[in-house]
Amino acid sequence: MTSRGLLRNHRGGRAPVSNLELFFDLVYVFAITQISQFVRTHLGFAGLAEAGPLFLAMWWAWIYTSWATNWANPDTVPVRLMLIATMLISLVMAAVLPRAFDGTLPALVFAGSYCLLQLGRNLFMVWAMAGERPAGSRNMLRIAMWFVFSAPFWLAGATVATRWGQFALWSAALAIEYTGPFAFFRVPGLGRSSAADWDISGSHMAERASLFVLIALGEGIVVTGTAFAERAPDTVRMLAFLACFAGSVLMWWVYFDVGAERGAHHITHSGDVGRIARNAYTYLHMPIVAGVIATAVSDALLMASPGALAHPALIAAGGGGLICYLLSLALFKRYSSPHGNAPLSHLVGLLALIALIGWAHVVPMTATGFTASCDIVLLVVAVWEWGSLHGGWRERFRQWGLPV
Fold first, then answer.
1. Between 285-304 and 19-41, two packed helices, what is the crossing angle to 10 degrees?
2. Cα separation of 83 and 345, whole Å?
3. Are 381 and 326 in contact, with CB atoms under 8 Å apart?
4. 340 Rama class: left (phi>0) / alpha (psi -120 to 50) / beta
């Protein structure tokens, strides 16, 4: 059976995101909700530590599928069947995720589903690329072998008697997998990947990543709206609701006003697309999404007790999540900066957030007050960047029809 015709013909140019890929992402809407819920119900150190491998596994499953669909043509039946099968396995993983550390059976289902997904998809790509792109097929085989190396750690971790033993083995599996791209997937007898193996569509990768950030931001909107609808509104709940909504809007603004478009332009016109896709989108977008999920947890905690004082869990989730978000976003924007510098507005915002967290631990603040203070920091960052770029403040005012 020939594999001819299963690949896109973008040759490094534009490859539009298909409806099937958007349909596939719906599973990860559910996965992010599951991770957010897991963190909200496991607020201790142990619970947060356990959430780490679960999030990293879900991100790795999604991003590798995005790489695959950058080459594979979703309009062909075999690729559609592969994506639907991957979608089903991802749904199983997401469904069992909250219980992945609660016993051997759910742990085996989670680990087994993850290994099946990663190996199955990559072996499919080995076959799909064999006819038209033999070098790409060998590269996919190298990647599959790295997942073969990590699979015993996943399965062994699911069968150990202690939660910390499971955590250690699953962390070892992820360490192997996350090292792979930096090691160029070197495999004895198969060699290592080269830059020519990563002739992807930069615009497709940028669009997929930005859509995932939107998915993560949507979790905060859903959490806030659901919590607000559960009880009769009063002044305190209304203020908390507005603070949560403003935070989501400002995070969207800081990412999409400059970062998303400039990053897409940079990767599309770069001569080293694979390296940028690896560093800026595969790795740096992971903490961006993690920061958004953390702030969604903070929003849920705030809406549960809008009139209470800001407790350590809310401060850590809200402030720490925004620090993770701004720091990783600053590093991401550094890639597309004309001068290779991180935005000064983001660095100042990071210092302000660190100071705010320290202040909240010393001087009691209401949960709504702390969240609103975080919003003010984000507002300063957004307005600063908005005015300093695109020709400066005068040009911005002219665009809005304001006198200068």
1. 50
2. 40
3. yes
4. left
Distance CA 258, CA 260 (A): 6
DSSP 19-78: HHHHHHHHHHHHHHHHHHHHHHH--SHHHHHHHHHHHHHHHHHHHHHHHHHHHB-TTSHH
> CA-CA distance, 181 to 171, in Å (whole number)?
17
In eight-state DSSP terms, residue 281 is: I
Q: What is the pTM of this model?
A: 0.91
User: Phi-psi category of 233—alpha, beta or left, where left has phi over 0 and alpha has psi -120 to 50?
Assistant: beta
Q: What is the spatial distance between Cα 114 and Cα 395, in angstroms, rounded to a whole number?
A: 50
Greatest extent of the chain over all pairs of C-alpha atoms, in Å: 70
Tens digit of pLDDT per residue, the chain (404 long)? 344 578 887 665 577 889 999 999 999 999 999 999 999 888 888 888 999 999 999 999 999 999 999 999 999 999 999 999 999 999 999 999 999 999 899 999 999 999 999 999 999 999 999 988 898 999 999 999 999 999 999 999 999 989 999 999 999 999 999 999 999 899 998 889 887 778 888 889 999 999 999 999 998 899 888 888 888 778 999 999 999 999 999 999 999 988 888 888 888 887 788 888 888 999 999 999 999 999 999 999 999 888 899 889 999 999 999 999 999 999 999 887 767 778 889 999 999 999 999 999 888 899 999 999 999 999 999 998 887 765 555 655 566 565 65
3-class DSSP state of 191: strand
d(CA 188, CA 142): 9
Residue 191, phi then psi, degrees to nearest 5: 75, -150
52, amino acid identity: G
Q: Which of 96, 101, 115, 89 is nearest to 52 (CA)?
A: 101
Q: At what angle do helices 235-254 and 285-304 cross, to 10 degrees?
A: 170
For residue 340, what is the DSSP state?
Answer: S
Is 3.30.1460 the CATH number for 202-388?
Answer: no
With 0-12 CB in 10 A as exposed, 13-18 as middle and 19+ as buried, what is 2? exposed
Residue type, 208: R
> What are the sequence ranges of the domains in the chain?
19-198, 202-388
